[in-house]
Design goal:
Length: 301
């Protein structure tokens, strides 16, 4: 049985191109590569949509270790703007998410909802807030992470249509980051936290061939339009929510109904119960930074 888990180079599953040739049909040389004979690596990235409350965290804890192991994931990126009680992020919740193997946490308009986030946002480079906020805003909008010694830039940017803040131009903000990245950074991942599908598609087409992956978050509803654009950028309009299924995008449905019908202020509570998990796996060529495969994940509890 053990024999079936190693290739002819005695690499473990996920460490060698052998497995990817079997799974995807794409031929890649074995890891590790040498300086004298550079060989490309196919990097497996797992991107998880807005984690909402306790149910969302339970889904992350139950699903991520298995997906990482069985799909040979090299880097996990997750949106955590709603991870603590449905609004914002606490230090304790952040630690819980990092401990399960998430490498970079992105966010959005809810990142500042829990005031304690200001105590640590500046000190945690792998926790991002929207890039296109005024200069002087605590935290940062992008980071160059590392997986298998390959640099991976992760950018978190927010849209402007129907959003609660007046964000800066996301096109311009991303352009500035792209020009400032060192040449050796080939893999670029963007979490575009935006409301409208048109704004997300427009930014994705604008960046086609210059970033590896651009995925939408914020709507909490997964779309089924995953694809790779002609110049090599993978795109999904929205990753969908990782949180309570029986809810209005994570909130107890009766509260949202009451608010919409009465037009009066209603305190929103996060729903509980059965969960769902929305994510995307993207395989990226580290030499070109282009996506090779995309595989959307939606798991119901
Ligand atoms: Fe959200
Ligand atoms: Fe949001």
């Amino acid at each position: 049985m053990l024999r079936s888990l190693v290739c002819h180079h005695r690499h473990g599953k996920g460490e060698c191109g052998f497995w990817r040739v079997r799974r995807t049909g794409v031929r890649v040389p074995p890891w590790p590569r040498s300086r004298s004979y550079p060989q490309k690596i196919l990097m497996n990235l797992l991107l998880i949509g807005d984690i909402v409350g306790k149910t969302g965290r339970r889904m992350v804890l139950s699903q991520v270790p298995g997906i990482v192991k069985h799909r040979g994931i090299d880097l996990v990126i997750a949106n955590a703007e709603n991870a603590a009680g449905g609004n914002g992020l606490t230090h304790e919740v952040m630690d819980e998410l990092f401990s399960v193997g998430i490498g970079v946490l992105t966010s959005g308009n809810h990142i500042f909802d829990k005031k304690e986030v200001f105590d640590f946002l500046d000190d945690v480079p792998h926790l991002l807030r929207p890039l296109n906020l005024p200069s002087g805003t605590p935290g940062r909008g992008y980071v160059v992470a590392s997986a298998r010694n390959v640099p991976v830039a992760v950018i978190n940017v927010a849209g402007r249509a129907f959003m609660p803040f007046h964000y800066g131009d996301p096109f311009e903000a991303v352009e500035q980051v792209l020009t400032s990245l060192p040449a050796e950074v080939k893999i670029v991942v963007i979490d575009f936290h935006a409301e409208t599908s048109s704004e997300k598609a427009a930014l994705a087409w604008h960046l086609d061939g210059r970033v590896s992956v651009i995925v939408g978050t914020h709507t909490h509803v997964q779309t089924a339009d995953e694809r790779i654009f002609p110049r090599g950028t993978a795109f999904l309009t929205d990753l969908g929510m990782t949180g309570p299924r029986d809810s209005v995008i994570g909130v107890k449905s009766e509260l949202v109904i009451r608010k919409l019908r009465s037009q009066m202020p209603v305190r929103f509570d996060t729903a509980q119960g059965a969960g769902q998990f929305g994510a995307l796996v993207v395989e990226v060529d580290d030499m070109t930074g282009h996506a090779v495969t995309v595989d959307r994940i939606f798991i119901r509890e």
